[in-house]
Fold this sequence. Notes:
This protein has 420 residues and is an alpha+beta fold. The protein has 14 helices and 13 strands.
Amino acid sequence: MISTESPDTAAPPEWWRCDKDTLLLAYVAREREKRRLEAEQGQILAEIESRGVKEVTGYATLPGMLVDWVQIKHSEAKARVDRARALNPRQDGGTRIPALAPHAAAAALNGDLGSAQLDPIIAALGALPPTVSAEDRETGEQILVNLARTAGPRQITHAAKNLRDRLDPDGREPKDPDPAEPRHELGFVTHRDGTHGIKIKTDADTIARLKATLDPLAKPRPATEEEGRDTRSQWERLGDAFATFVRIGMGNPDIPTQAGDSVHVVVTLGLDELKTGIGRACLDLVGDISASDARLLACDCKVIPVTLGSHGEPLDVGRAQRLATPAQRRALAIRDGGCAFPGCDAPPQQCTAHHIVFWAHHGETRIDNLVLLCGKHHRLIHNSDWDVRIASDGYPEFIPPAFIDPARTPRRNNLHTTKT
């Protein structure tokens, strides 16, 4: 029988007395300790299996033992056992089996990695073909482990795919079926309640292209502390994706009669409001808006600012060069590949050219002062403690708030580029 008494009988801190930073740092510290303890549990499981589960415990399988001993589901027990086998060397009869991911195991014992980071690394290494050399496997694992210290499962999985493509470039032989004769029909429907619909009949190739275009736009938004998980249904996500697709198409200069720059508006606000983002502004054809919304809008809309001094006199009118030019946006798309915020896969068409040093703070519209950000992360940079800068190699990097990383280690997005 296993004792459930805690060896530490000290009373927990009175959390309600702590400030925000203390709470957040305490939570992160306990997460690291939990990861370290889980790694030690994995070592114990590997040793139990090496000695023979039946001989040590009387159970036929290691997952079966865990189900009874720690009262967890069989699926969770199997995941723990699989993780322990991959991270730790063990004996199988008279054969010693080395660890599949020894570098990941060391990082887990240090509290750097948890199951969310370990599982995609293990899956990636397990999927490598036997033709990959041990040296390449070890180098690939180290790359993934270094990335996983500051990245989530999606980024690790993406990086693992890139690694597998490099180590096994041939892959499977692609199929090349003969295309069907295209047939297209499209109609618009207006419903009695005033909503609108579309009826379409087309070939498999067009549907595949449409789905390939909409699927990335329709992904659930990653859960955040501020917004929680994405509660939209699949239909709602596809509807939003289609609306985004139409807006992107409307901005394509190659479409006849639909070319042109972003919408021109006039924003009137005081110089102090422009610099601080505090106060109100007047948006032409709309009316009163906050100064912070005006600054946010100014990053990528065709804004003609009419800045007023303390007595209402015009100080500056126009300066359209505050916007990134088409050539600059193309350069940003090549450099950033899309939203540059770590872990975001939004493509360039959904992004704004954000001034790192705000234009209102005398920031210039230069490539080394611009970074592509999607709408969500554009708002985050404007309204949080995240910082962004251009590193010495010319690529953007983001510095997290201290409560996320006390060392404030710069992070990058590896989903669009190979820079790490």
